[in-house]
Amino acid sequence: MTLGKRIRDRRLELGLSQVELAHTVGMTPSALCYLELGRNRDTFKLVELAETLGVDAHWLKSGTKMTMRPSTAHDIRARNANEDALRAAKAAAERADQAKSRFLATASNDLRKQLSALAIYASLLKGRLPPQDRPLFVNLQNCVESLTTLLNDLLDLSKLQAGVVKVRVDDLDLRRKAGQAGCDPRRRGEA
Q: pTM for this one?
């Protein structure tokens, strides 16, 4: 029995296609085909073939002293299935990332326009309000500034993912920030 016939018989015994076996050991399917047909006697992948087929490399080369690992075909199929699942998950993640980037680009422009318009309308109101309503205007102005900051921070996430912005860890006084935004819950009843 020739080397090519031993490879072919063991491959068929395990239920593997030439493509599966070639992919697993890092060969082209045509190179494996030539090896099985006896047209190529190059044994540069002999050890990988033997391990994948679950046989002893010496047996594969000479035809004597065979030792088998019965779980090899299952291992190869499981590994190929895992690789396929990983490729599919990676492709789905890349599509989701592209969709997120498109959304952020579109939303940022639309939201910035609306916030700019709100800030302009608020500044127009400033001169027309009676003195007793000035605190309401200050709260409105603080909320517009806070929303603008939040939007800019949200959009910085895309820059962060692109590596343009570096992360800086810092303490945050949440009560002070809420007060600056005019959103202090203690003031809710005053408005």
A: 0.37
> What is the tens place of the pLDDT at every residue in 38-65?
877 666 778 888 888 888 777 777 777 6
Task: Give the other-Cβ count within 10 Å of 41's Cβ.
Answer: 10
- Mean pLDDT for the chain overall: 78
Tokens of 101: 């980037």
CB-CB contact of 14 with 53 (8 Å): yes
Among the four given CATH numbers 1.10.287, 1.20.120, 3.80.30, 1.10.10, the one describing domain 93-187? 1.10.287
